[in-house]
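The freezer alarm interrupted the setup, so I double-checked each line after restarting. Inputs confirmed:
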Amino acid sequence: MNHKPEHSGIKFSVTGLLMVVLLWSTTGNTAPITFNTALPVAQGEFLVREQLIVNQSGDDPDVANRDRTATAAVTALGYGISRKWTVFGILPYRDIDLDLEMAGQKIHRNNRGLGDASVFMRYTAYQDNKPGQTFRIAPFAGVKAPTGKDNTRDNLGTLPPPAQLGTGSWDYFAGVVTTWQTLRYQVDAQVSYRINNEANDFEAGDIARLDSSLQYRLWRTAAKGGIPDYLFGVLEANLIHQEKNRVNGNSNPNTNGTRLFLGPGIQYVTKRWIAETAIQVPVMQNLNGTALENKYIVRGGVRFNF
Amino acid sequence: MKKQILIGLFSLLFLQSVFAAGTHYEMRVDGLACPFCAYGIEKKLKAVEGTSDISVDLNKGLVKVNTVEGKELTEEQMKKLFNDAGFTYRSMKKTPL
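Predicted 3D structure, all chains:
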């Protein structure tokens, strides 16, 4: 059996989406689960975040009956350079399973290893601190480097872009995140844009994204030395629009589109660590042609102060 | 008898001032709203020589710390410390230990 990989990934709409899903799972203080926050990282201090993300796509409208499970263990590190500047680094370890049918045959393709690393800077442009609350606005900008392997092959040939660990391209992104935190609840919102570039004759579509998060304190422990543990209920929304992918300079009409996710979750917050989980469910998917739909994204993770 | 009691009380006061060790500080800090954020402050205060018994009262926005005798925390020093941690220092109240 030597099927030519006709479904060369260019029809899949999830490549860029997954990359952006990984990227925004950054670090921070008490913060949204699916994107970043404007809250401070103290000067000279580190935060680390580990998050496991399972991104399931399927319900293929195409005859190939594609099904894709992308799992990623994402490590994010934040460092407070000064009271205004924070630098973040992100490195995912990815495991991608791709199932599809070709000429009546079921095909399974898999790839695993380190993905593309990202680095970005955040600047606290505005902050208003009051007793028991803070409001902040922080623009950010960064780059994704092609550190992940982008030309993995199996016995069927080169894997399609959605099954590659990296994109092979240098991509750039920027946005603004704002946070309003009180003792009882926290609201975060973020707007961002990502420019994806071409590599290996493939260019994922650019991504515009609007995220919001509400974290409401449901319960607290007795204060230990003045600091109790908090349990937050979380509800997040992610509106993501991705332009069509391009192959050899030509736009692919069966890729990407607009998705809206709603993500309920919970977050347990202590002085030293945070544990959290959320499930992102697509409530609207306005996709191009036979672009593959997202079924769900599950996240679980921890953050540490050290 | 009255005289002995008075002498005793004066002696106690004298001894207390002789053995008074350090100062208790209670500082009002704005922007403190979550347990995870408080750790940065504790860590920074711990790094200041002569400090101990650091605690943060989130609900009241108070940071409390003791210093050993001869160690003074200044307003300028605390303003910078809290600023670097991302918060706003407002005021301090000092009490001898």
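Quick read of the result. The helical segments of chain A are 15-23.
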